[in-house]
Hints:
10 helices; globular; nine-stranded mixed sheet; Rossmann fold; alpha/beta
Amino acid sequence: MPETASEFRAPRWCRNCHVQTIWGPMFRRPRLRLRRERLLTSDGDFVDLDWCADEPSRDAPVLLVLHGLEGSSRSHYAQGLLDGARARGWRAAVVHFRSCSGEMNRLPRFYHSGDTGDLRDVVGQLRTREPGVRLVAAGVSIGGNVLLKWLGEEADAAPVAAAAAISVPFDLAACAERLDRGFAKAVYTANFMRTMRRKVVEKAQQYPGFVDIVAARRARTFAAYDAAVTAPLFGFADAREYWERASSRPYLRAIARPTLLLNALDDPFIPRHGLPKPDELSPHVRLVLTERGGHVGFLDGAPWRVGSWAERQVIGFLEARLAGIDAGAPRA
Length: 332
């Protein structure tokens, strides 16, 4: 059942939801040493994983982090989660969506907000080479949507001990409508569109005409971009069908692993009516709603020493579930 978190208090200097949202990308800088691994996908493309370079022993548990829209292992929240895992002696890696690792992928496609195939490939390969690996996962923004949808698809067969997600856009249609107007469109959507349109143009040099390039270049909203690019690339009839079928909200009841969800009620990306109701949640899912926090914010501390309440909650939750496994509870 959703609950309002009383333990998170945004400091006076960043109570505004936009400050919470923007501060991390602007001022929390990447600092971890990373090691890249490339895994081949079942369709002949590749997925890049960035692992913490100073890894512990091979029998340590593994945290997989799924980044947000147009994010990467350099994103502030990804670095924070990797660092939290490293401090506890875990192995940890960011799983990059296609086109987000710094190198364009091979096939005439990108990724979308409900694309679970690559995550399934990555987890399968890790478990094949390490049959006894203890896996946990964390997703941020659309990475959280992908993770939750995958957990619902896998249900009792999900090969992870526990999962957590921050600022999940459970209902993609509701979020697109919020982001395609007003301040959000002028600031957040415009920023996303710049990088997404640039990638379409770059991919068109390799695959001319793979989508309607003219329409893609004109796109200034998620509705226009998803109609021109995402829907035709992935076989959806239109943007509306894509949003409906790719949203994690309908899959939440099927999740069978302990899962923590953290969302802020003042998130500028996610309207309140886009949040799931209590009867939409599996008994294994705990949804915590905070009054403040913005989108992937939840910042606390002083401006010169900022921390993330959400990242600490995620790592603490996963640590407790792994401790239960180590104490003899059944493994996933």
